[in-house]
Prior knowledge:
Layout: H1 6-15, E1 18-19, H2 20-29, H3 45-48, H4 58-74, E2 82-86, H5 92-104, H6 106-111, E3 113-117, H7 121-130, E4 138-141, E5 152-159, E6 168-173, E7 178-187, E8 190-195, H8 211-214, E9 222-225, H9 227-239, E10 240-252, E11 268-271, E12 274-276, E13 287-289, E14 292-293, H10 294-303, E15 307-313, H11 314-327, H12 336-346, E16 355-361
Parallel strand pairs: 2-3, 2-5, 3-4, 5-10, 10-14
Antiparallel strand pairs: 1-7, 6-7, 6-9, 7-8, 10-16, 11-12, 11-13, 15-16
This protein binds S-adenosylmethionine.
Amino acid sequence: xxxxxxxxxxxxxxxxxxxxxxxxxxxxxxxxxxxxxxxxxxxxxxxxxxxxxxxxxxxxxxxxxxxxxxxxxxxxxxxxxxxxxxxxxxxxxxxxxxxxxxxxxxxxxxxxxxxxxxxxxxxxxxxxxxxxxxxxxxxxxxxxxxxxxxxxxxxxxxxxxxxxxxxxxxxxxxxxxxxxxxxxxxxxxxxxxxxxxxxxxxxxxxxxxxxxxxxxxxxxxxxxxxxxxxxxxxxxxxxxxxxxxxxxxxxxxxxxxxxxxxxxxxxxxxxxxxxxxxxxxxxxxxxxxxxxxxxxxxxxxxxxxxxxxxxxxxxxxxxxxxxxxxxxxxxxxxxxxxxxxxxxxxxxxxxxxxxxxxxxxx
Length: 362
Ligand SMILES: C[S@@+](CC[C@H](N)C(=O)[O-])C[C@H]1O[C@@H](n2cnc3c(N)ncnc32)[C@H](O)[C@@H]1O
């Protein structure tokens, strides 16, 4: 049986060092030993920290309300409407969205195709388990390249997918006035940071950083760059013939990337409810996430014809949904549990601070 981290060590021995992006890909997604390949609950994501979905059903129900409103505007005869969810993990959010639609918008529920974009057969199995009883209109597709997705009309969305895609980690070498890339090497058995000898590839270089900012940037200032997230967003945009592309995630908007408070970047490891600064420890046993660069996503979407409708903090997004719903007579009898859930989703001390929502449309 393969031990966690064994394949990472093997790859480093073959190449002397690997990029952090490759390390993150192997630590999170290696078959059988990757963090996200392990069964949900207990050890694993649900055991490591709270997400908007694990707070309760309300998050998915509010999304379902908003999706129903958007889909009503997109309806045309003989063209099926789709909700496509990526990064569904254990399927709990899909269950919350579909459960609300089944109860409150049965007409839409009956005609809708709900597609889970899921490359891993292991996770598809967990999702099938969770969605038993709701699965008649549900389909699984392994990736955005599948021709069955071309020309989709409806909504493509993800919650905390893009922060889990591999990132390159770049450091600023102030004396040299240039960026370098952090890689991962071995010192004996121990995984250690190393500067990769090759110059940073043009596609990773933060060209948008103004020279006057670089002139004062402290030596070692660290940022992340995720071509994987930008490529995913561009491919999703190209799949969408009409409708909305939505990302809900940790992240920053234009101009916020070089904050003085983020000298060490935004990469974090989570292990059993604790944030850990040791990103290389316990590969496969701790979650790794980095803030999403929402302005880079907006740019990627715009390049393939999408328009930005909204890029706002999660509390603003959810509050607008709730007020519109209440005006129409939905969500009017909140019980104490739902009130607590809404507070947790929107309060700055809980999930209201770092989460943003990007909506682009075609
Ligand atoms: C942080 S979890 C998502 C949590 C879940 N959406 C929720 O709201 O609770 C990220 C998930 O995205 C999955 N993932 C990673 N790359 C993916 C891809 N290219 N397509 C779809 N899912 C992917 C991971 O395996 C993991 O299950």
